[in-house]
Design goal:
This protein is of the alpha/beta class. The protein is about 40% helix and about 15% strand.
């Protein structure tokens, strides 16, 4: 199941705000449509956002009226800026845009044909999408080794095929273990306030036939204390150089509960989610979203009108609560600094 794809000079994506009750495809015909899809969470999940941004750049180039290469490069500047302004926390967004910007500058130096630059940018976005799928399958293989037959695994937010181009990060690990024949059961946190667990993870696991139980977020500690959770697997939107993990709001609480109950806590991410420019999670920007996500569910009000609301979309889990970080370059254990720099160097071909 691909979450995003290019067809007929248009970016197509699954509208995740309509799931699980409606399966609707959004057609983005220009880069502002792509920016809106990211900002409104029609598409979400750090790796998916990164590839979507790359497609947004390709689409912007495709629609730009420029006849010359210099004009095309100039007309791409507002494309980069518009896409960068959509969401602040997921570093994959900026990774995807910067990949495409550097690639555009590089290919432009070798041709005076603007249409050739357009074709090459689209090919690069397609390559990044295919690479994402391969990356997720590698993470699945590495992470599945951490899951034993008969385990009960808890996950928070959505980290499956919907959060990437296909297959999944943390849910990809669970999926790989299941495909290896391991008997597992998944506790699915509903993940308030946007309900990615209830709406998306439950939907994916049911389609895959993997045994699961949906719980509200405040039930996790109860099942941990009763010995019914053997491991926690989550994704991340950005991980700092010291291993601090920024992920969907509520992840920190889950990590503290897991630590208190002696349960291993794993974050599963592609190397593109690492931000070694930040020394710790204290420097990671936290997105504040629309209060209506807290006061309403599917448009239905659940709180008094006019109530004051805080709605941070992410929190930061300190590295001391993280057992290991599963990447497409292997599993990194504490202390994280050296291991994370190693996998980044390997990814960039410097090792």
């Amino acid at each position: 199941m691909r979450t995003i794809w290019w067809q007929d000079q248009t970016v197509h994506l699954i509208d995740q705000t309509k799931l699980p009750h409606q399966e609707i495809i959004v057609e983005c015909r220009d880069y502002p449509d792509v920016a809106n899809a990211i900002a409104t969470m029609q598409i979400r999940g750090a790796p998916a956002i990164g590839v979507t941004a790359a497609y947004g750049v390709a689409l912007g180039a495709w629609r730009a009226p420029a006849d010359s290469v210099p004009d095309l490069l100039a007309q791409l500047q507002p494309v980069y800026e518009t896409l960068r302004a959509t969401r602040p926390t997921a570093v994959n967004l900026f990774w995807g845009i910067d990949k495409m910007r550097r690639y555009a500058d590089a290919v432009a130096a070798g041709t005076d044909d603007a249409d050739e630059v357009r074709r090459l940018l689209l090919a690069e976005a397609e390559r990044l999408a295919d690479e994402d799928v391969a990356t997720n399958r590698r993470m699945g293989e590495y992470g599945a080794a951490l899951i034993e037959d008969g385990m009960n695994v808890l996950t928070h937010c959505n980290t499956g095929a919907l959060a990437v181009v296909d297959y999944g990060t943390a849910l990809g690990v669970i999926r790989a273990a299941w495909e290896q024949g391991k008997h597992i059961h998944v506790w699915v946190d509903e993940t308030r306030p946007f309900l990615q667990g209830a709406r998306l993870t439950a939907w994916e696991l049911m389609k895959l036939g993997i045994p699961m139980t949906l719980i509200s977020d405040n039930m996790a500690g109860h099942f941990m204390r009763r010995g019914q959770v053997d491991a926690v697997f989550v994704g991340a939107d950005r991980i700092a150089a010291n291993g601090d993990v920024a992920n969907k709001i509520g992840t920190y609480s889950v990590a503290v509960l897991a630590h208190e109950n002696g349960i291993p806590f794993y974050s599963v991410i592609p190397v593109s989610t690492l931000d070694l420019s930040l020394a710790s999670g204290e420097q990671i920007p936290i997105e504040e979203r629309d209060p209506r996500e807290v006061t309403h569910i599917q448009g239905v009000p659940i709180a008094p009108e006019g109530v004051h609301v805080a709605n941070p979309a992410f929190d930061v889990t300190p590295n001391r609560y993280v057992t290991a970080i599963v990447t497409n370059r292997g599993v990194v254990y504490p202390p994280f600094e050296e291991g994370l720099r190693r996998v980044v160097a390997e990814s960039e071909g410097n090792v």
